[in-house]
Amino acid sequence: MTAKDHINYDCPYLSPTDSVEKALELMEDYKLFHLPVVYKDQFVGLVDEKTILNVLDYGESVCKIELTGKGIYVQSHWHIYEVLKLASTNQLSVVPVIENELYIGSIDLHKMVEAYGQLSSVTSEGGIIVVSMKQQDYSLGMIARIAEDAGYKILSSHVLNDEVDPSWVKVTLKVDQLDLNRLIASFERYQINVVATFQEREFNQDLDNLDHFFKYLNI
């Protein structure tokens, strides 16, 4: 699950002498909002759609535009989590990948969603349960023991700060069974708040909707 494993080698890039017009055409064709600029296999920076749309002369070369993200890239051996974090923090549609100081390709939005799906075990059968607790009480080991004692296996987990009270966290668990009743009862016995549950059928509908959305974007 390294960055190199998820490179889309069809993802385009620009040279400094390419025109703004070419950049916009590639962004339109590939449904991207950013493109890496590469010179002699060296990553130079990113151009973003918002910046180049303000350029008056579309015949102007990319090298005359202020590039963003000159230091925004990942090393090829980094875990895909680091890629997702960088893309989220900087709101990127592509993440450049560097190996031995050379540009080797980019990870686009489609590949990022694919990687997230693998990390989240979205293709595995099971149910999803969301619990809430004080941050100081959170322990994945404790949660796993409760689940295992109830006969469940945790396939994936994600932790987010509560949007209302940052001293609390919400933990989303994907488990290996659709029937969540025993797990809910076990959490309640330990006074762990269950705030939401999702059956595979409901979740698959969400995935279908996401798939239709990507088809609409043609990515």
How would you describe this protein?
By secondary structure, the chain is of the alpha+beta class. It folds into 2 domains: 3-117, CBS-domain; 122-205, ACT domain (Alpha-Beta Plaits, 2-Layer Sandwich), CATH 3.30.70. It is built from 7 helices and 9 strands; from the N terminus they run H-E-E-H-E-H-E-E-H-E-H-E-E-H-E-H. The strands form 3 sheets. The chain has a 4-stranded antiparallel beta sheet.
Structural class computed from helices and strand pairing: alpha+beta
- Overall, the morphology is elongated
End-to-end C-alpha gap? 22 Å
Question: Going across the major beta sheet, what is the strand order?
Answer: 7-8-6-9
- Specify the CATH architecture of the largest domain: Roll
Please state roughly what percent of the residues sit in beta strands, choosing from under 5%, 5-15%, 15-25%, 25-35%, 35-45% or over 45%. Answer: 25-35%
The low-confidence runs, each spanning 5 or more residues with pLDDT under 50, are 215-219
CATH class of the largest domain: Alpha Beta
Number of domains: 2
Instruction: Estimate the mean pLDDT confidence.
Output: 86
Q: CATH superfamily name of the largest domain? A: CBS-domain
Q: What count of helical segments does DSSP give?
A: 7
Portion of residues within helices: 25-40%
- Main beta sheet: strand number and arrangement? 4 strands, antiparallel
Order of helices and strands: HEEHEHEEHEHEEHEH
Radius of gyration over alpha carbons? 22 Å
What's the CATH topology label of the largest domain? Answer: CBS-domain
The strand count comes to: 9
